[in-house]
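lol ok so funny story. i was supposed to be doing the assay writeup but got distracted and ended up predicting the structure for this chain instead. priorities right. anyway since i did it might as well share w the group, maybe its usefull for someone
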Amino acid sequence: MYGLTPNDAALWTARLFGGSILGFASLMWVGQKAISVEVRRAIAFALFIQDVIGCIASVEFQITGNVNIFGWLSLSLYGLLAIAYAFFLFGKPENC
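and the output, tada:
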């Protein structure tokens, strides 16, 4: 989809990344029922950091021209999620 030619290292990295995404998804699924505001804020902060780093990495990868137009989708998704988590962390801290 991104116009990349996979090799063994890329497949291994993609599998690790997929496992991380499933781990984050399960954390969010279970964490949404947490009563503690501190726990919900900690989860939101961790996801905010992940999305900021993902956005920066996507910008770098898109600028180098290693991916096709679909690279902008990842960049946009990470950027929007980082903005959303920033809003919940810094805009409405009592309701996070």
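Helices lie at 8-31, 37-64, 71-91. The chain has one domain: 8-95.
back to the writeup now i swear
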